[in-house]
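We were asked to recover a plausible sequence for a given structure. The inputs and outputs are reproduced exactly as logged, with field labels preserved.

PROBLEM: sequence recovery
POSITIONS: 486
GIVEN STRUCTURE:
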């Protein structure tokens, strides 16, 4: 993660903390209005932008997104305090999870491939022969690229022995695996929500923090403050991102005001067993392969961009789906909140009437800081349901496949796992080939996780992938194995 991205994450965190403190104060709307001015008071340094007024304007935009609203619809006349009051009156979250802060967008130059001064005018001219589109010509002893013909495939870059041909990129566009973000007529980034799979890669990639998730932090807190039964369901990856023992998590949520806490690993046990059964049925029918179905971004990818892959996706629901089903059965009147490592789950939550709200790890961390909860001093408490080792290991790349293997009741060598550790433009091409040919040369149980490292590598994480993976692994190993149920 770059220093620029870390800086914007720090800004977002500070605003979220201030929003929570404002909510807990006697004058929420007024204290929200003051956030940009308190963060950049008169006479203070201007660390990022041209002037203090630009800084305040962008901080205002970040606060609006933190309150849960889309910046695309902001008329710049509405007071921040009015947005705060609207957040209190809101009955349900807005439709699309991501928004673009137009005033924070740099309007980066368009991506292009061009020849630098390093061109040596080779006799062989390998760049010319490498280009399949006739986009390169030799002019005045130098190679030159016709931008209108160039497809930005990069073959000329690879062919040049001097690496004299380079490609400039727009970080958010380069990161998006489905080309859902691009420049509008105003030169600024715009999200095509019909294409967007809510993976959040653009959020992590933008050095200016212009792409932003619309938070539901106020929606959750106002239900808790109203005295309603609010139940937290946390992803297994959370254990790797908090500075405490896993047994202290429950008490921390109780201090925030949650009535009860469930591990989503409980639902992961159901997913593992269901996928194992589904896989057996597909093998019996002669299917060449099956992909897992727990990643929300992958499910959106198939739905919006690769419907031809749908027949190969497991019919099993996500761990969150099954956990919410359990919670609603035991507490039908409860407000349910999922604690997520990524942005993609926001889309799944919006589509599931058994889940009311979602907070990511960053938002949870902001609440803990704002309320002064020292999580490492919380009382240790056990969860009512003891999840399996494999269910807790879902958070790590390869963990879903391992869980299916553990729940498998057929011949041990019948399953050949294939792990797709992170969705990008390259893995998308591979998946399309698998769907077209009906074969996966890597294996017959294909685990697809949008984030590298698995859920522990989610873009709302609070720790490094390496550290989180280790901690989740240690926690998982403290539990029983699905193999023990054989």
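RECOVERED SEQUENCE:
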């Amino acid at each position: 993660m770059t220093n620029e991205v870390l800086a914007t994450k720090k800004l977002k965190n500070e605003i979220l903390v201030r929003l929570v403190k404002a909510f807990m104060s006697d004058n929420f709307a007024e204290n929200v209005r003051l956030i940009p001015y308190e963060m950049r008071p008169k006479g203070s340094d201007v660390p990022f932008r041209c002037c203090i007024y630009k800084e305040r304007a962008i901080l205002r935009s970040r606060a609006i997104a933190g309150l849960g609203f889309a910046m695309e619809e902001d008329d710049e006349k509405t007071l921040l305090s009015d947005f705060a009051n609207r957040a209190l009156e809101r009955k349900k979250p807005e439709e699309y999870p991501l928004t673009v802060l137009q005033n924070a967008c740099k309007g980066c130059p368009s991506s292009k491939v061009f020849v630098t001064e390093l061109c040596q005018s080779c006799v062989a001219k390998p760049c010319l022969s490498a280009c399949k589109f006739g986009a390169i010509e030799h002019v005045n002893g130098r190679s030159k690229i016709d931008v209108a013909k160039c497809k930005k495939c990069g073959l000329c870059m690879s062919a040049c022995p001097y690496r004299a041909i380079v490609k400039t990129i727009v970080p958010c566009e380069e990161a998006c695996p489905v080309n859902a973000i691009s420049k509008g007529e105003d030169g600024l980034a715009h999200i095509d929500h019909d294409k967007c799979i809510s993976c959040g890669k653009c959020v992590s990639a933008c050095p200016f923090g212009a792409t932003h998730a619309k938070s539901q932090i106020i929606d959750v807190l106002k239900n808790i403050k109203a005295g309603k039964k609010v139940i937290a369901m946390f992803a297994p990856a959370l254990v790797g991102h908090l500075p405490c023992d896993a047994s202290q998590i429950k008490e921390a949520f109780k201090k925030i005001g949650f009535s009860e806490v469930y591990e989503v690993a409980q639902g992961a046990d159901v997913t593992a067993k269901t996928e194992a059964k589904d896989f057996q049925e597909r093998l019996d029918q002669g299917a060449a392969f099956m992909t897992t179905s727990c990643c929300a971004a992958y499910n959106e990818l198939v739905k919006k961009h690769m419907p031809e892959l749908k027949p190969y996706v497991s019919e099993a629901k996500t761990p969150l789906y099954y956990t919410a089903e359990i919670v609603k059965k035991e507490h039908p009147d409860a407000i349910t909140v999922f604690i997520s490592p990524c942005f993609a789950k926001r889309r799944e939550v919006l589509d599931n009437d058994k889940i009311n709200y979602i907070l990511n790890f960053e938002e949870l961390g902001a609440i803990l800081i704002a309320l002064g909860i020292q999580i490492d001093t919380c009382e240790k408490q056990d969860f009512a349901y003891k999840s399996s080792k494999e269910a807790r290991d879902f958070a790590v790349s390869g963990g879903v496949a391992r869980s299916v293997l553990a729940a498998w009741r057929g011949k041990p060598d019948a399953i050949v796992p294939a792990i797709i550790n992170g969705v990008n433009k390259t893995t998308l091409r591979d998946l399309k080939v698998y769907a077209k040919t009906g074969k996966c040369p890597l294996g017959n149980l294909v685990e697809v996780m949008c984030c590298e490292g698995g859920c522990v590598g989610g873009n709302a994480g609070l720790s490094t992938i390496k550290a989180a993976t280790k901690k989740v692994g240690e926690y998982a190993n403290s539990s029983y194995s699905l193999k023990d149920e054989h």
